[in-house]
Amino acid sequence: MLTKIKQTIDYIRQSINFDPEIGIVLGTGLGALADEIKVEKAIPYAEIPNFPVSTVQGHKGQLVFGYLGGKKVVAMQGRFHYYEGYTMQQVTFPIRVMKMLGIKLLILSNASGGMNTSFRVGDIMVIVDHINLFGTNPLIGQNIDELGPRFPEMSCAYDKKYIKLAFDIADECNIHLQQGVYIGVTGPTFETPSEYKFFGKIGADAVGMSTVPEVIVARHMGLPCFALSIITDMGITISGEVEKPTHEEVQKAANAAEPRMTTIIKKLIERI
Ligand code: HPA
After folding, report:
1. Predicted TM-score (pTM) of this structure
2. Ligand 1 pocket test: which of 232, 249, 251 has the largest number of ligand atoms within 8 Å of its C-beta?
3. CATH code for the structural domain at 2-271
4. Crossing angle between the packed helical segments 2-15 and 88-100, to the nearest 10 degrees
5. Where along the chain do its domains lie?
6. Which of 31, 120, 150, 247 has its CA 20 to 30 A from that of 234?
């Protein structure tokens, strides 16, 4: 694994002489942020040695290097999900590469279903903690001591400093922010009514199919993380009913929240 990471780093450094300070996983809700990056170079995943190969046709996966809010950033345009059939090591490989390129902060976004009945579709939730319910962990296997410890602690997976900053920015911009615990599951099925209820009961506010593996690998390497989630459907409504989420509905709610999410991340990066 370490050899692979070094190979990938060598290739990237030969392609571009650029030391990013911040890494961004452009998940749901942050697609438009890519347009705001003053691009120095974009490298398609297919050209990067050891990067997972995308099996989805027309999938625009690339690593974008450039400037955003006056900072040097590297952004993953397109992420890898466990439900697509990638291994946990493949899903998280780009995070390890970005850390080795020198990033000091990892920013991520995603879409999720809400269990907290004070949430509404279209809300943006700052992730303050997570529950890993993938049934596996990207760090299973021989530990890579050069990257981090065998038993990494996860007491502060999402950095409090950036959470506070996000709320300050949201206040100033009149953007309503929620906060809560994200539970990560494999998907690709949405939850049964009983699963939504169960996840709510065990302490989660929203459920989604990404982010947890990336954050685990980032924290293993001591990399601070900040993540936002768009509540695209309600697993449980106030009346106790369960909605029937569709991919289209998720997409629609995500598009509506995108400008707010973009504003927060852009301003956050400016202020770091
Ligand atoms: N469950 C899991 N993942 C999701 C959901 C959901 O309800 N909405 C968006 N991503």
Report:
1. 0.95
2. 232
3. 3.40.50.1580
4. 50
5. 2-271
6. 31
